Amino acid sequence: MYKQVELNYSSDALEPVIDQLTVETHYGKHHATYTKTLNELVQKAGVADMDIEELLGTLDKIGDETLRQAIRNNGGGYYNHNLYFSTISGTASHAPTGILAEKIDKTFGSLEDLKKELTALALGQFGSGWAWLSADKDGNLFTSKSPNQDNPISEGTGRIPILAIDVWEHAYYLKYKNLRPEYVKNLFEIIDWKAVEKIYQRVTG
Ligand code: MN
């Protein structure tokens, strides 16, 4: 049984970057529905109780095409939002430290350069989707974007996302309306780099 990550902040804690109603709707409705639907689908497909990263990395084993696509969408929706909601915080640490900080500088030049790259990907995603910072097991870092609820795992890259930027309109429309650039710019203010570091450590374990 897949469970939504618990928020370690109240729904108004991300104000003014993300308003309370958006958190309540995004987490309480959108994310909740992906999770509920995924749990129903994996029962149907006979793949319940798999580790979610393993499930998304082995979608081709699901023979029925309609079920496979539905699990890709809802499994991605479940997983992507767990990452998103656990790497933002009202009391965020504003910069990475340690090995991740060094790797970011080495790969992208600086944290500011990484933010620029992620911003370009987030704004360049036409329609709904995501921008990612991902890592491979050797600790190398990559940026990318995905449509819909895809991610680097379901795309078969073998990389694990460690930071997620949700650019579906439901993530920002109530407050920012059509101004995706404003939302993405402000989102960096609440990225919890301590949480990102922990995921990086897990991936590179
Ligand atoms: Mn979303």
In total, the number of strands is 3
pLDDT averaged residue by residue: 97
State the CATH topology of the largest domain.
minor pseudopilin epsh fold
| The top level CATH class name of the largest domain | Alpha Beta
Tally of individual domains: 2
Order of helices and strands: HHHHHEEEHHH
What binds here, in terms of ligands, is: manganese (II) ion
Q: Which structural class fits the helix and strand makeup?
A: mainly alpha
| CATH architecture field of the largest domain | 3-Layer(bab) Sandwich
User: Roughly how many Å is the radius of gyration?
Assistant: 16 Å
The main β sheet shows up as:
3 strands, antiparallel
The parts where pLDDT drops under 50 for at least 5 residues are none
Strand residues, percent: 5-15%
Helix content: 40-55%
Number of helices: 8
